[in-house]
Design brief:
eight-stranded mixed β-sheet, OB fold (Dihydrolipoamide Acetyltransferase, E2P), 9 helices, alpha/beta, 3 domains, Rossmann fold, 23 strands, about 400 residues, about 25% helix, seven-stranded mixed β-sheet
Length: about 400
Amino acid sequence: MAEFVIKHLGVQGDGVADGPVFAPLTLPGETVSGRLDGSALRDVKVLTPSEHRVAAPCRHFSSCGGCQLQHADDAFVAEWKVDVVRRALDAHAVETVFRPIQTSPRHSRRRAGFAARRTKKGALAGFHGRASDTIVAIPECILVAPEVLRGADVAEALARIGASRKAPLSVMVTTTKTGLDVAVSNGKPLDGPLRQQLAVICDQMGLARLAWSDEVVGMRAPPVHGLEGIDITPPPGAFLQATAHGEAALLAAVREITEGAAQIIDLFAGCGTFALPLARTAKVHAVEGAPEMIAALDHGWRRADGLKAVTSEVRDLFRRPLLPDEMATAEAVVLDPPRAGAEAQIRELAETQIPRIAYVSCNPVTFARDARVLVNAGFTLDWVQVVDQFRWSAHVELAASFTAPHIRG
C-alpha cells in the first residue's frame, strides 16, 4: 500500500496527489493510502482526515454514483465550485467579481435518470453505482424530490415488459404540474402488444406522459411546466433546469443583466426558460436548433396573457450563428449553450456593440474560452453568479454579465 497527500480536487471531484494520482472521496490536505492502479488509487483509506470531512448525509453515498461530494462540508463544496470557475477563467487571464454561490436545497431535483434491467425475479431499478455499470436500488434519496423517486417503481414496471437483454433501460423522470413525465430509451422495438402494455402502465401508474424512444405511447394529460406563471409542455426528454430554485436563480441573474432592454435576442432558447419570462417587459426573438422545442415555446407564448411579442426561429447556431447585422437592433442578448459552449456564435457577438450579454453556462471550461473572446473584443466581464443546482456533484452552472465598451461606467 502506498501513501499520498491530496493536493486538490480535480474537475470530477476526485482528490489529486502528485503524479498525478486520483483518489475518489478524498479531500485536500488528507494523507491517504491505497493500491495504485495506473493513475488511480484503489481501496483508499484516509489516514489523516481533513477538517472539512463530514459523515455523508445519505446512507446510499458509499455505493451510489449519483453524488461525488457528500463527504465534504457545505462550505468547502461551495468554495470549491466557485474556485472551479475561477481557475477556468484564470487559465485565460480573465478577471471578474464572484457573487455568493446559490445552492439548491435538498429534495429539490425535479428530474432524474434511472437505469432499469430485467432480472430472474422481475426487475431492478435505481442509479448506477460509483464508477461502475452496476444498478444500485435507492429507496431513499436526499437529492431528488419525493415524487421523482417514485420513478424507480415506474422504471421497474417498464423494465419487466420492455427491457432488452443487451442493455438496461434509461428512464428519465420529470415532475410536472400534471404528473410524472417519463421518457425511455434503450428499450425493445415498439410493436402492437408492447404499445398496449405501455399504455396500460401509463394509465395505472398515473403518468402524465410516457414516451418510448421519443415516440409518445401514452398520455393522460399534457405535462405542464410553469415558468413564472407561463405554462409550457416540453417535448419528451427535453432539457429543463434541474431545480426550480436553480432556474429562479439563473433567471434572476439574466433579468438583472437585461433590465431596461426593449429588444432581446435569446440564443439556444430551448423551450423558453428565459425568453418567455423576459417577454413580460421586452420583445424577444428566440433562436433554437430543435424545432420541437421552438414549437413548445411558441405554443406557451400564444397561450399566455400579458406578454410582449415573441418571435422564434429554428436555426443551428453551431453551423449558422446569427451575424452582427442580424443582431443590430438588439439591446441585450441571452445565451445558454450546451456543454460545448458557443464558440462560433461568440465570434459573431464579439463583432457587435450589443450593450449587455447574459451568458448562462453549464461548463466553466468552454465558458472561460468564450469569455476570453468577448474580453479581447473590449467587453467587460462584470460579475459571475455560480449556481449549484446539482448539489453534491462535480457539476457547476453559472450566469455571467458582460457589457460593451461604450456603456462602461
